Amino acid sequence: MSQSTLQTAIKEELLARIKSGHYTEGEKFPTEYALCEEFDVSRTTVRGALNQLTTEGYLVRQQGRGTFVAGKKVRQTLSHTPNNYAAQLAVQGKRGQVSLIDLSVVSATKQLADVFTVDEQAPIQKIERIRHADGEPTQYEVSFIPWQIAPGITKDQAEHSLFQTLSQVHDVHVAKTTEALEIALADEKVSGLLDCPLGTPCFYIETVTEDASGRTIEYSRSYFRGDKTSFVIERSYS
């Protein structure tokens, strides 16, 4: 078996142990030497497996102390769910919080004009937010809502559910969302806002939200820390 195949096999075995609770959150992880002895492989192979688990957010290295099992990733549902961010985290035993970075009105660029089918220069509300789990930043989001759809969104509304604000305050109801997901590397701004190293792999999601008539009522771009977030996609077939 090649070194890369061995490394993958060891990484998958260690990951299975973490997910099953064999190694618990906050527990000090076995040393490279101990793992070399257990699996009868070279230190290079073990180190590669541990590096992968660290990059993917399952292990945390602490200078001078060793390697520890990281906390569980924030799990979010991409398919339909009536629960907002805080409610989704609450069932996972985590405290969710949304903090507003900026709330402003901008003129529609050509891209935004095309997304919302409005004139260029039409007023669009731009809402920049950070989502936290247990005080740690996990998501940076920029949302756009045309002024004509929900004029005068407030700071308090922006720090809670925008969909609830649209429904309860403006009688605008979400009927459909279309999400495009890809992997992106954190640039200087994203790494600063999410408190992660430059170049950290992130999930990048663009979401287009429509009402029952097919009108686009919200468009957003979101960056999720790849080492702190996982997604669940549920499908029902009749």
Helix content: 25-40%
* Order of neighbouring strands in the sheet with most strands: 4-5-6-9-8-7
Mean pLDDT, to the nearest integer, reads 85
Q: Report the biggest beta sheet as strand number plus sense, adding barrel if it closes.
A: 6 strands, antiparallel
Question: Span between N and C termini?
Answer: 45 Å
Indicate the overall shape.
Answer: elongated
Query: What CATH architecture of the largest domain would you give?
Result: 3-Layer(aba) Sandwich
The CATH class of the largest domain turns out to be Alpha Beta
Domain HTH gntR-type: 4-72
GO molecular function, one term: DNA binding
InterPro entries: Bact_HTH_transcr_reg (IPR050679), Chorismate_lyase_/UTRA_dom_sf (IPR028978), Tscrpt_reg_HTH_GntR (IPR000524), UTRA (IPR011663), WH-like_DNA-bd_sf (IPR036388), WH_DNA-bd_sf (IPR036390)
Keywords: DNA-binding, Transcription, Transcription regulation
Verbal overview:
The protein folds into 2 domains: 3-69, Orthogonal Bundle (Arc Repressor Mutant, subunit A); 74-232, 3-Layer(aba) Sandwich (Chorismate lyase), CATH 3.40.1410.10. The protein is 30% helix and 34% strand. The protein contains 8 helices and 10 strands. Strand 1 (59-62) and strand 2 form a beta hairpin. It is elongated, with a radius of gyration of 21 Å.
Give the secondary structure arrangement, pairings included.
Blueprint: H1 3-20, H2 32-39, H3 43-55, E1 59-62, E2 66-69, E3 74-77, H4 85-90, E4 96-107, H5 110-116, E5 123-133, E6 136-146, H6 155-158, H7 162-170, E7 176-185, H8 188-194, E8 201-210, E9 216-225, E10 229-232
Parallel strand pairs: 3-10
Antiparallel strand pairs: 1-2, 4-5, 5-6, 6-9, 7-8, 8-9
Helix pairs in contact: 1-3, 2-3
Keywords: DNA-binding, Transcription, Transcription regulation
Protein name: GntR family transcriptional regulator
Domain HTH gntR-type: 4-72
